[in-house]
Design brief:
Order of helices and strands: HHHHHEEHHHHHEEHHH
Structural class: alpha+beta
CATH class: Mainly Alpha
Number of strands: 4
Radius of gyration: 35 Å
Helix content: 55-70%
Strand order of the largest sheet: 1-2-3-4
Number of domains: 1
Shape: elongated
Distance between the termini: 42 Å
CATH topology: Outer membrane efflux proteins (OEP)
């Protein structure tokens, strides 16, 4: 009986040949920063802040120390963004997609592991042994295309991570302005409440003294009731806005540790110059860039699908066979899927349909980007004009009216109720000024996001590229 020894030397020779071929094709390895350097550059160029990729305990600890330093002082819009980029855990979860995309890229640059087949039959005093080692030749031949496709997807993942970062930054800025404005409005509504209480108490005393009619007293009482309701609503809104800010920046500590400034930032002297804002959006908006890149990846995937649509599986390998009483026989083995029922037309048609879908979505996204920038530009200009009107016209006019009423009261030409009514009007004007200033900063944030980040409901097209890859390159 012949000894059934596995041909390790032949296996080593074949493996060496394919390993050398792979080394000549490409050397796929993981990057040192996991692709986060591009995310940092994309983010820095658009908002001036660096994101934080916290993959180790040391990085997380350093981020926590920096957050503690920032929270020692009252927050500003910029520091709120920095805290959010350091502490938002959802953003860190989004960054994990980079690791998934890089793993796919590295995997595409490595030859699939060979498979070994071993069979042994015995009977009637004899033994037959069949051995083979197979390599995925088609995967090796199409490796450059597969690498290019996965590289494109990896770049898309980097852009998506940057887009997620910009979205978190924009949300932090909006939450900051909402929280500060709500806190500021609580103070003004409290002043209205004090005036309403004084007016109501004075009216009741004058009714008791017979110097005031019941209808006028009920009007003061009604105003006092409305003031109480408005103050309660403003207090709840301040709590809700603060909690939204806490969620946006990812703060898990004591809510009272978040210090806010007493008032909103002042209106800038001049509005932003919006010349060429639409073209800037088309050149820098991440969702538009991702859609364009997705279409390019799909085109490359379609080319791979057309090149290999008649051959889906091709394995080549070394084989030998030994049997009792016979000499060892050697040869090779080719495993090929015959296109008898599926000629690859369905797979190619799917890729073509996905490509055209991506083309149309890219065109639609560019149209939406132009429209959104024009809309946000109009909202920004309008909010600026209204806030400036309150600052330069409404509030000074209310102040002059108040000073005139005080002079009339001192000259015994106006009653105390006239002064209280004027105080209500003046505070109402200040409330309107605060709300208009808040609306301006919100509009400014939305405009900046529309020019560099993208629509919060926009589709990046990454999922489309992955679907195409599944229909073209994955089977090869």
């Amino acid at each position: 009986m012949q000894k059934s020894t596995f041909p390790w030397r032949a296996l080593i020779r074949v493996t060496t040949v394919f390993a050398a071929s792979l080394a000549l094709t490409a050397c796929a390895s993981f990057s040192q920063d996991g692709g986060f350097g591009s995310v940092d550059q994309l983010t820095q160029a658009r908002i001036g802040h660096s994101p934080s990729d916290q993959r180790t305990a040391e990085q997380s600890s350093a981020a926590a120390v920096r957050v503690a330093e920032l929270l020692k002082l009252p927050l500003s819009a910029d520091s709120a963004v920095e805290v959010a980029l350091l502490g938002n855990r959802g953003l860190q979860a989004d960054y994990a997609a980079l690791g998934l995309a890089e793993a796919d890229r590295v995997s595409a640059g490595r030859l699939a592991n060979p498979s070994i087949r071993f069979g042994r039959l015995s009977g009637h005093g004899g033994v037959e042994v069949d051995r083979a080692v197979l390599f995925n030749v088609l995967g090796w031949l199409t490796m450059p295309w597969a690498q290019a496709i996965e590289q494109g997807r990896f770049e898309q993942a980097q852009w998506q991570a940057a887009a997620d970062t910009l979205a978190v930054a924009a949300q932090a800025r909006k939450a900051f302005f909402e929280a500060v404005a709500s806190q500021q409005l609580v103070g003004y509504h409290a002043q209205v409440m004090l005036a309403a209480e004084a007016s109501n108490e004075l009216a009741q005393r004058m009714v008791q003294a017979g110097n005031f009619n019941a209808l006028a007293q009920m009007r003061e009482q009604s105003f006092h009731s409305d003031a109480r309701i408005n103050l309660a609503r403003a207090q709840h809104q301040a709590v809700a806005a603060r909690e939204q800010l806490i969620r946006a920046i990812g703060w898990a500590g004591d809510p009272l540790a978040i210090q806010l400034p007493e008032r909103l930032p002042d209106l800038p002297g001049t509005p932003l110059a919006l010349k060429d804002a639409v073209q800037l959006a088309l050149d820098t908006r991440l969702d538009v860039l991702m859609a364009k890149r997705s279409t390019e990846v799909l085109a490359r995937a379609l080319g791979l699908g057309q090149a290999t649509r008649f051959i889906n599986v091709l394995h080549l390998g070394y084989q030998n066979k030994s049997a009792t009483g016979e000499s060892l026989s050697r040869g090779f083995e080719v495993e090929l899927e015959l296109p008898l029922f599926d000629f690859g037309t369905a797979r190619t048609a799917r890729a073509e349909a996905l490509y055209m879908q991506s083309v149309h979505r890219t065109a639609e996204m560019a149209l939406r980007a132009r429209s959104e920038v024009r809309e946000k530009s109009s909202a920004y200009q309008t909010a600026y004009e209204l806030a400036r009107h309150y600052r330069d016209e409404v509030v000074p006019l209310r102040r002059r009216i108040s000073e005139e009423n005080l002079l009339r009261y001192n000259g015994m030409l106006a009653s105390v109720f006239d002064l209280l009514a004027d105080s209500k009007d003046q505070i109402a004007g200040v409330v309107g000024a605060v709300e208009s200033l808040r609306d301006f900063w919100l509009a400014e944030t939305q405009l900046q996001t529309a020019m560099v980040g993208g629509s919060p409901t926009g589709s990046s097209g990454v999922g489309v590229a992955r679907a195409a890859g599944a229909s073209t390159a994955a089977g090869h």
